[in-house]
Design goal:
Layout: H1 3-11, H2 16-20, H3 28-43, E1 45-51, H4 57-67, E2 72-76, H5 79-97, E3 103-105, H6 115-122, H7 130-143, H8 164-167, H9 186-196, E4 199-203, H10 204-213, H11 218-221, E5 227-230, H12 236-244, E6 246-249, H13 250-267, H14 274-292, E7 300-302, H15 313-335, H16 342-362, E8 369-375, E9 379-385, H17 389-397, E10 410-415, H18 425-428, E11 437-441, H19 447-450, E12 451-454, H20 467-482, E13 486-489, H21 493-508, E14 517-520, H22 526-535, E15 544-548, H23 552-555, E16 565-568, H24 579-590, H25 595-612, E17 623-627, H26 631-634, H27 638-644, E18 649-651, H28 654-668
Parallel strand pairs: 1-10, 1-11, 2-4, 2-5, 3-4, 5-10, 12-17, 12-18, 13-15, 13-16, 14-15, 16-17
Antiparallel strand pairs: 6-9, 7-8, 8-9
The structure holds iron/sulfur cluster (SF4).
């Protein structure tokens, strides 16, 4: 039977899915997307699908991919989504379809316990802190039982624990075939399983990391795969540029020095003056940091010429040269002992690589790339391509290449938000996919009935110092009526703190027991914040308010009545003084295009769409969205941004806003 027909039958009322899932209903959008995916699989080519919230896009690509009988690679944005796909959606569907499909999960090596380094950590007298000993004991215990070695399976392990780098490997310190634990190694096992599976679930980081350094086994995997699906594809460009560029950090230099000293003293004491070599690397890294002087923490220094802005070129170049020399000397020292241990071979490669990078940064920036320096306690030198278009065309799709296996492959890119125009240019241009077939499947939700949008006409301007206070007041009034259930999304960390503090102060005036808890991003780990918010009112609190920025605009999901009010402080334009944003804008202007119309505005539209998308997650959800930025109604471009939002009904004036919020509250009681 042709694949399209099989797919149609699976999704039809009375088909396999309606028997397997109680709540399954045939949805036109879902079937439409699934049929388009099936066609692409049969014919090969590139399909880009924007599938609004509630379409059920995961099943739309999984069903045809599984039914095709082809070898499939699925990539999603984060490890959490990877676990969800592999642990929940995929097995559910494989069972429902009754297919004999072998599936595998493959993450980056940093996700797996390294048995060799665990051995070393046991004998390491200088563990970072006392709590580490307890964590180490826990990991040791778990290591005896785990089959996969995936640290995500270890309950209660804080992913920020300083112990994790000591019990996981990097490409630099893995001993490979020389390792005494090579056979039971979890990283190798995961790769072997991936090679043998029909469906492999990876993440975008792994995909691009492998494209950059060909290390994780993907290079062997891809040629045998016929169908590749990127879910959450809106993150591809930003993830890709991180890996396809060049980076050198003073922290990396210090890590190298630490590993060099440990290996040297343990395995070749007295043969080389290790202290001297390591001292040289540390001094050079410190000098480079000092060359930058005092800066705001988190500052990004543009670097268009010989040195970053405000730094004397001669001093900067001298420091870079000193760092280059220190790595060279370390490499020479290691060369003399490389027969003694595989550790020295790895360290030697690492020293050479670091020295080459220092040299690259002393030379001019590559054409089509942009450079800057991230300043923190350490420095990070970055050279980044402006987008991934070239890499996708020539190294991923390879549609023009003479490689037989690249031809006929099906590429599916999907997400709930991929742009604000019919060609989805926000996504396709930077990803080099302008020639792709594009499909937009709208959300099945009845937004006009389920949600209302309020944009105040009289409100402090976004740059007015009183703006954040007014946002806090408005959000606090709504949250007090609703008993929390409010998410405030801010565009800056400063606004996040101001609004968080102001809302707490507002609620102080309420009687104890009527005060919602104010959760502010950064005060607790993200996962804890999300769980606490979804819990809502617990003993002693009157619900929850979450004030958040950055990743919460797109990565937060609170279905049901846990969330009924979303307040956005300002239009999320990209920060104009960010070196990457600036370089992208300049390139557009040089091409005679408009940096605002072709870049800033679509960026803001996509972010706004994502932020607004937090409100309605199910057909039964009801809620109000408030955007506290009068530019949306006062400026001409506001119309384009409003058009990007789901078609919610509009609220005119504060009185109506209060009435809507009160009605939401009443409907729940
Ligand atoms: S092969 Fe590499 S990752 Fe595996 S146990 Fe050895 S050092 Fe660790």
């Amino acid at each position: 039977m042709p694949l399209e027909q099989e797919v149609r039958e699976v999704f039809a009322q009375g088909g396999v899915l309606s028997h397997a899932a109680d709540h399954f209903r045939e949805r036109d959008g879902q079937t439409q997307m699934a049929l388009a995916v099936a066609r692409t699989i049969e014919q090969g080519g590139v399909l880009v699908v924007e599938a609004g919230t509630g379409v059920g896009k995961t099943f739309s690509y999984l069903v045809p991919a599984l039914l095709s009988g082809e070898r499939v690679l699925l990539s999603t944005a984060t490890k959490t989504l990877q676990d969800q796909l592999f642990g929940r959606d995929l097995p559910r569907l494989v069972t429902a379809l009754g297919l004999p499909v072998r599936t595998a999960l493959l993450k980056g090596r940093a996700s797996y316990l390294c048995l060799h380094r665990l051995d070393q950590a046991r004998h390491d007298a200088s563990l970072p802190e006392r709590g580490s000993l307890r964590t180490l004991a826990k990991i040791e215990q778990w290591s005896k039982a785990t089959r996969t070695g995936d640290l995500a399976e270890l309950p209660g392990l804080d992913e920020r624990s300083p112990l994790i780098p000591l019990v996981t490997s990097t490409r630099d310190n893995c001993l490979g075939a020389q390792c005494p634990q090579f056979k039971p190694c979890h990283v190798n096992l995961a790769r072997r399983e991936a090679m043998a599976a029909d469906v492999v679930v990876i993440n975008h980081h792994l995909f691009f990391a492998d494209l950059a350094v060909r290390e994780s086994g993907m290079a062997e995997l891809l040629p045998s795969v016929r169908v590749v699906v990127f879910d959450e594809a809106h993150q591809l460009n930003e993830t890709g540029v991180q890996f396809l560029g060049l980076q050198l950090g003073t922290g990396q230099a210090l890590d190298f020095g630490r590993d060099l000293l440990a290996a040297g003293l343990q395995q070749a004491r007295g043969l080389v003056d290790w202290q001297e070599l390591v001292g040289g690397v540390e001094r050079a890294a410190r000098e480079l940091r000092l060359a930058v002087g005092k800066q705001w923490p988190g500052a990004k220094l543009r670097w268009a010429g010989d040195a970053p802005e405000g730094i004397p070129a001669a001093a900067w170049q001298q420091s870079l040269e000193a760092l280059h020399r220190a790595f060279e000397q370390a490499a020479q020292g290691l060369d003399t002992v490389s027969e003694l241990s595989p550790d020295f071979v790895r360290l030697h490669d690492r020293a050479q690589q670091l020295s080459q990078r220092a040299q690259r940064f002393a030379d001019a920036c590559a054409e089509g790339s942009v450079r800057w320096v991230d300043v923190g306690t350490q420095l990070r030198l970055v050279e980044s391509p402006l987008d991934i278009a070239e890499a996708v065309r020539t190294r991923v799709l390879k549609l023009d290449a003479q490689e037989p296996e690249a031809q006929g492959r099906a590429w599916i890119f999907t997400s709930a938000t991929l742009g604000d125009d019919p060609r989805l240019r926000w996504f396709t241009e930077p990803c080099g996919l302008e020639g792709a077939e594009v499909l937009r499947v709208h959300s099945p939700f009845d937004y006009a009935a389920q949600a209302a949008l309020y944009v105040p006409r009289a409100f402090p301007k976004p740059n007015d110092p009183a703006h954040s206070q007014q946002v806090a007041l408005l959000a606090a009034r709504g949250a007090a009526t609703l008993g929390g259930r409010t998410l405030v999304l801010t565009t800056t960390l400063r606004a996040l703190r101001t609004i968080g503090d102001a809302m707490k102060a507002q609620f102080e005036r309420l009687e104890v027991g009527l005060r919602p808890d104010v959760l502010v991003q950064g005060e607790l780990p993200k996962r804890v914040l999300m769980d606490r918010f979804r819990e809502g009112a617990i003993a002693g609190s009157a619900g929850c308010v979450l004030v958040a920025s950055a990743s919460f605009w797109e990565g937060f999901d609170a279905p049901g009545d846990a969330l009924q009010l979303v307040v956005i402080d300002k239009l999320p334009f990209p920060p104009p003084n960010d070196p990457l944003v600036e370089a992208r804008s300049q390139r557009l202007e040089a091409q005679g295009r408009s940096a605002f119309g072709d870049y800033s505005l679509p960026e803001a539209a996509v972010s706004l769409k994502q932020g607004a998308g937090r409100l309605i997650r199910r057909e039964s959800d009801r809620g109000v969205l408030v955007i506290c930025d009068t530019r949306l109604v006062a400026m001409g471009y506001g119309k384009r941004l409003l058009a990007a939002l789901p078609p919610m009904r509009r609220i005119e004036g504060e009185a109506q806003l209060e009435a809507e919020i009160a009605a939401l509250n009443d409907a729940r009681d």
